[in-house]
Design goal:
The protein contains 17 helices and 18 strands. By secondary structure, the chain is of the alpha+beta class. The two termini are 25 Å apart. Bound molecules: glutamic acid (GLU). The site of glutamic acid has 15 residues, from loops.
Length: 590
């Protein structure tokens, strides 16, 4: 395992006594018990009671656990952890990003979702990205969407939490002030971004101190971000959505602080202050499919996560047997439909895409051998007859999507659960730090289809949210949670979530095995990308069935919690991918 970012102890966090308990405490754990890890490293699996957390990062997991221990609920802890990730994983998450949050309310036995996806400015049209090279858009003001995270945190806390935003930001402020120890992953991500970071004065100043990436083992402090969080707590989200911080974001997007001598073409953005003032995080009904007698809840459009995972599960259920071949084929078909039908547009045929009738019709196309590429989209029209003939589609949509973001899961002592995907899109977002404020801007608008692509549901538009693949997922059995999970990885998020579910329930693995198992991802592409261990283990058998496997060195970085019954929780993170994650429980099982 690669060296980890070890925790700089969080002392003096202001949460003591500040959480208002709004729910009856069941089996409250001893106040000072922390389980699942030593202070020096991360642990991928932790089992116990009273609350559980899984994130990619020890500081974030510890912050969440601390909130739980002091009486906060899963939403409080999830927001606190997300804000800490903005400090310790600043290239994957942050206050200028966005995300999707699923919340299971134990008292009402109900799954809620909050859409904190970034929006396009009002001036953006279907043609705004046309003809622009993808790489040029990646590092630009043009690709910065109106940030959603802060509005989402505020809404989540107001609706379901017990802490104020100011309180929930305290752990992150502490970590930003005191600093964290630079690990290999942070160093490598900085080094991979060094060329473009150097092109912006503000970014170079923050992330390339002395002109180079911070050394492994050094302490990285971000006092400017600590101050930004502090002021955000003091002035509230309006400081961003129409206030001074918003003005600075707009100024940065419109006139990126390009370093003297840089030869980079940096396109300015279209964002204006009214775009920020108009932003709303939105509650949306979750997607739901029933699978092996359980209910699988996911994120509805503008994410394609819930519909694509759900459709693939339905297809698998319509097949006589399920193995890795069927997993790849179901995913291929679901991606064909996602490309044609899902985006932030009215009239996404969600009910039909998730219907058993449609799944049966799609399942007809799965045979003993891999189907011809590209798989055609189906007709989710409610009229499902005998198996249609399998004619390959003329083209498959293959918009590039970055591989980075992050996911966390929190369960509290009352049985509430959060699964939360957050992102600034590319590793390092658009590469542009807002001067003096300590955070990077997102480049989420590169998730739109650049076009021209008539009829594509994912073309840009004023106020529109780019289609996402983020797939925070909560599974209930008889109205009670059994599993919550999610992953980063652009469009591979969907296949990682799906493969873990298949591993767990079709292939009989335990959750730690299901998360650690080698991965493959089929997204209606000619080749199936797979990790080396997957190719070694399954390549011959799958090739014999017509699959063509291509190496992808690392797919996803999942986090999950399983509810084992009798209040026992199993928190699971990656043992190795992305340096390994951090799973913690409040009261470890002996
Ligand atoms: N922008 C991606 C999405 O929403 C998430 C970031 C990533 O993993 O690439 O699907």
């Amino acid at each position: 395992m690669i060296t980890h970012r070890s925790a700089v102890p969080l002392v003096g966090v202001l949460l003591a006594g500040s959480a208002v308990l709004t729910q009856p405490a069941a089996a409250a754990p001893p106040a000072e018990t922390v389980g699942g890890t030593g202070k020096t490293g991360k642990t991928a699996v932790a089992e116990g009671y009273g609350g559980a957390v899984s994130t990619v990062d020890l500081d974030a997991s510890e912050a969440a656990l601390r909130v739980l221990r002091r009486g906060g609920n899963a939403v409080d802890a999830a927001v606190a952890a997300a804000a800490v990730l903005g400090v310790t994983e600043p290239y994957s998450a942050g206050l200028a990003g966005g995300g999707f949050l699923l919340y299971y309310d134990a008292r009402r036995k109900k799954v809620h979702t909050i859409d904190g996806r970034e929006t396009a400015p009002a001036a953006m049209t279907a043609a705004s990205l046309e003809g622009i090279p993808f790489e040029e858009a990646v590092t630009s003001g043009l690709s910065a969407g109106v940030p959603g995270s802060v509005a989402q945190w505020e809404l989540a806390l107001r609706r379901f939490g017990t802490l104020s935003l100011r309180q929930a930001l305290q752990p992150a402020i502490e970590v930003a002030r005191r600093g964290f120890t630079v690990d290999q992953t942070f160093h490598d991500q900085t080094a991979a971004n060094a060329a473009r970071f150097a092109d912006f004065t503000s970014t170079a100043k923050l992330f390339l101190p002395g002109g180079a990436p911070p050394k492994v083992g050094s302490t990285f402090r971000n006092p400017e971000l600590a101050e930004t969080y502090r002021l955000l707590g003091r002035y509230g989200p309006r400081w961003l959505y129409g206030g001074r911080l918003g003005e600075e974001i707009v100024a940065t997007v419109k006139r990126p602080p390009v370093a003297p001598g840089s030869t980079r073409t940096v396109r300015p953005g279209l964002m204006e202050l009214p775009d920020l003032a108009a932003y709303r995080a939105l509650e949306r009904p979750p997607t739901k499919v029933s699978y092996r007698g359980m209910d699988v809840y996911g994120m509805a459009p503008p994410s394609s996560g819930g519909s694509t995972v759900g459709e693939a599960l339905n297809i698998l259920q319509a097949l006589p047997e399920v193995g890795l071949h069927e997993y790849l084929e179901a995913s291929r078909l679901a991606f064909a439909d996602r490309g044609k039908y899902v985006g932030d547009v009215p009239g996404v045929p969600l009910r039909q895409l998730l219907s058993d009738g449609f799944a049966k019709e799609r399942a007809c196309l799965v045979t003993e051998r891999a189907m011809a590429h590209p798989a055609p989209a189906g007709e989710p029209d409610g009229d499902y007859g005998p198996c249609p003939a399998a004619t390959p589609a003329a083209t498959a949509q293959q918009a590039p999507e970055g591989p980075e973001t992050t996911h966390l899961v929190v369960a509290d002592r009352w049985g509430n659960v959060v699964a939360y995907n957050i992102t600034i899109e590319s590793t390092g977002g658009n590469g542009i730090v807002v001067p003096g404020r300590g955070f990077l801007l997102n480049n989420e608008l590169t998730d739109f289809t650049f076009g021209p692509a008539p009829g594509d549901p994912n073309l840009p538009g004023p106020g529109k949210r780019p289609r996402s693949s983020m797939a925070p997922t909560i599974v209930l059995d008889g109205g009670k949670p059994v599993l919550a999970l999610g992953s980063p990885g652009g469009s591979t998020i969907i296949t990682t979530v799906l493969q873990i579910l298949v591993n767990r329930w079709e292939l009989g693995m335990s959750l730690p095995e299901a998360v650690a198992a080698p991965r493959a991802t089929q997204r209606n592409t000619a080749q199936t990308q797979a990790e080396q261990a997957f190719i070694d283990r399954h390549g011959a058998e799958l090739s014999a069935r017509g699959h063509s496997l291509a190496l992808n060195p690392e797919i996803g970085a999942a986090t999950a919690v399983e509810f084992l019954g009798g209040g026992r929780l199993q928190a699971v993170a990656e043992p190795a991918r992305r340096g390994g994650g951090s799973a913690l429980v409040l009261v470890p099982a002996r």
